[in-house]
């Protein structure tokens, strides 16, 4: 795709493409030789110019002003950095963190459910984890968790001593923008019963402390009220903590398989 010849960012082949001898779907987008000859900052700048032009023409929506590293695999060599909103248009994988903030009370498990701000560029007004966010360039996972926990929920850094890394979820799905591919790193954070989240960055309308059983009922009966990946993360939390178990869930084995 050459938006003016001087950019020379991508080479677009519309007829067909193949990988290791296997025929793929018609069409492909590859980095141009000019782009590959540059170093990472130059590639990032050149790609950024093209993405900004596409955004100015209304072809890229939900601009975040947040660069994400583009690499073959997580934590491998960065090829260039790209605006987060552009990733699904190219089917590129993004990474993020989700933190389940929970409380034990009277033998029951409760979770803090966030309602996303109605001003958010994506999934405005939907239910979400207490803390969640994309993983931008130049920030480690634990640094990102701490940053988002403070900004989104007013968590005291001392409370992060209870933070536990519990795994990851990866998925792909088709959107009106293209192929959304994500890998989420999951964390549990047990909080004292006296804790109440306070949003500091304007991205959350409100927080509610809800029994996990009631959250699952909400997902089952009103799925459209949930940010899609946040509903999956919540189900995974319920499976790990035994709220969803083989006794109460006939499709437990299939559900467990899909969560891995």
From TrEMBL:
UniProt protein name: Nudix hydrolase domain-containing protein
Record-annotated Nudix hydrolase domain positions: 94-236
Single GO MF annotation: 8-oxo-dGDP phosphatase activity
Species of the source: Porphyra umbilicalis (Purple laver)
Xref: Gene3D superfamilies: Nucleoside Triphosphate Pyrophosphohydrolase
